[in-house]
Amino acid sequence: MDFDAVFEDQLDALKAEGNYRIFAELDRQCGTFPRVQSNDHETPDEVTVWCSNDYLGMGQNPKVRAAMIDAVAAHGTGAGGTRNISGTSGAHVALEAELADLHGKQAALLFTSGYVSNWAALSTLGSRLPNCVILSDALNHASMIEGIRHSRAQKVIWKHNDPEDLDRKLSALPANATKIVAFESVYSMDGDICPMKEIVEVAEKHGAMTYLDEVHAVGLYGPRGGGISEQLGLADRITLIEGTLGKAYGCMGGYITGSTVLCDFIRSFASGFIFTTALPPAVAAAAQCSIAHLKVSQIERARHRQQVARLRNALDANGIPHLENPSHIIPVMINDPVKCRMLSDILMRDWGIYVQPINYPTVPKGTERLRFTPGPLHSNADIDHLVSGLTVLWKQCAISRAIA
């Protein structure tokens, strides 16, 4: 068999659909973010990033950078292996304590990414708990879906953000089922926020474990950045809270928090933890610094909310449709993969604006979008320039405009 020919055929089909992904070659520069250097001769040398998950610019924070540099000087660049083989560093222990405190839990456990933490924790819980049934919100992240699938536990899908449907699905399960309700706080593609109190109450009514993914909320919401669960005062009623260090905290890694015995259980049985090289101590030190800073500083979050509101208002004033939601994520709907890719390319080439097109399979076909994540480091002039570019393209490309 000509394997390369098979690969080429499928890649060609992907390109024809408008869903082929192209990496933008961009170099972040300390002190200039969200402006970055482009290595593509067809685009301006400097472009402004509008789709980063470094929501608060903490990857540029001088204190966080210094913490990482100091840790490299003290400990070197890598962890040397898994924590079982190479030992656990003081930086790992300190970061886990910081995370447990963030969510008001007894313990925390680190992973190399939020994807891995979801995959490892859900697959372990689902495979080892007796008669386990995992009830998954219909729009849960791929990492949660893969973890549930790998667990081989029974899976029940409930309607997105619908506590009444969850109640019906839980009521239909046998009495001896071990039930886990898995859901997210902020859903990253539409930017909607779950009705957390109602979901928790339904789960408690049926004696179910609650598994909450807060990856797009930690650092951003709550008085100390503990996420929507902290903002609503519900963290103590949720069994397991999962999060990431790679978004609002500006570093890398994922984690779970919960009771001491729960974290020990995952640590002892999750292959995604046991067989994976640990985070470098320098990354752990930087992440701890970032979390500790955002527990007390309100400056970044306040500026963030201000710029999100400013961009939304500017889009409304210019008739550019975007999904209404209560979060920091602003999806501008295009609903066509080829047009979405084209708009992204023109914004980059002619306006020095980088926003990655969000196409299938990240979102369903026909719901393609440009997903904007304004941050505290975007200036008012940056927002005005973005809206000017979008307004011109809306007219040129004959995309339906919202009624002003």
3D structure, described in words:
The chain has 404 residues and is of the alpha/beta class. It has helices at 3-17, 62-75, 83-86, 90-103, 114-128, 142-151, 163-171, 196-205, 228-231, 260-269, 271-274, 281-296, 299-317, 337-351, 380-396, and strands at 26-28, 35-38, 46-49, 107-111, 132-137, 154-158, 178-184, 209-213, 240-244, 254-258, 330-333, 353-354, 357-358, 369-372. It has a seven-stranded mixed β-sheet, with helices on both faces. The chain has a four-stranded mixed β-sheet with strand order 1-2-3-12. Strand 2 and strand 3 (46-49) form a beta hairpin. The termini are far apart.
Strand percent estimate: 15-25%
Per DSSP, the total helix count is: 15
Strand order of the largest sheet: 4-10-9-8-7-5-6
Percent helix among the residues?
A: 40-55%
Estimate the global geometry from the Cα principal axes.
globular
Helix-strand category: alpha/beta
Q: Would you count the extended β strands for me?
A: 14
Radius of gyration, rounded? Answer: 22 Å
Q: Give the biggest sheet.
A: 7 strands, mixed
Low-pLDDT ranges: none
Distance from first to last alpha carbon: 57 Å
Rounded mean pLDDT score? 95
Output the helix-strand order. HEEEHHHEHEHEHEHEHEEHHHHEHEEEH
